Input
Amino acid sequence: MLPYLLLLPATAFLCVFFLYPFVLVAIDSISRDGSYGIENYRRMLGHWKFGTAFWNTMLLAAVVVPIQLAMALSMATVVSKLQRGRSAVLYIFAIPLGISDLAAGLIWLSIFEQSGFLNSLLFGLGLVEKPILLLGYQNVWIIFIAIVLAEIWRATAIMMVILVAGMGLIPKEYGEAAEVFGASKWQRFVRVTLPMLKPSLQTALILRVILAFEVFAVVAALGGTQFPVLMSETYNWQFALQERGIAAAYAMVILGVSVAFTILILRLLHVPKGARL
Output
């Protein structure tokens, strides 16, 4: 009975704080006016903002996650190679982890807003005659770029920390053997480090992709209602429009997309048989 008793606290926690709320949200998504059906999903899909929010979320994840993966791999490699000052560099890289999503959005808002640092710099250099409204509805792509920069700055460290831990578990003998046989640094990285880093890559990608689909505070700070995403629409339907059923339908869509991409990542990275779904 000991293994089951040890698992009991975690199981109870998951049931109370995940399974039970999930069941309630799933029921809310199919119930309306005392009856059950797909009316909430029909209204959600028929709303003009759904398509925009969905593709904005997909585009944001498609741009941010690959850039963060490349940067995290580079940063983790640099940290792993250091002989001195490794802890200091790791702490510096990980500083954004201690900043909340909203705080990160406000920091970048102070850069891109009309009276922000970027406009002050451009005006000081004589490149503009007066401050430019960069985050206006006419400049949706600038809003998108600002959100991408804020997300990359804020969340790359999450992946880096996981990859640093993974690189620390790779025996040095493998790289030394490859070097003896004439492999270049790039060949050792591609043929030795990356294959052995797959479990860490899998964890980092799954975590980051799920968080990318749930992005909200940074978008709210920089784009407001001008750049809708799935999470902001969920919030809007729940609190502004008081449509709990449609908000629940949005939540189920986010969950479904997250699960689909999680399974895709598990399959693409060819995880060991014992760890597959």
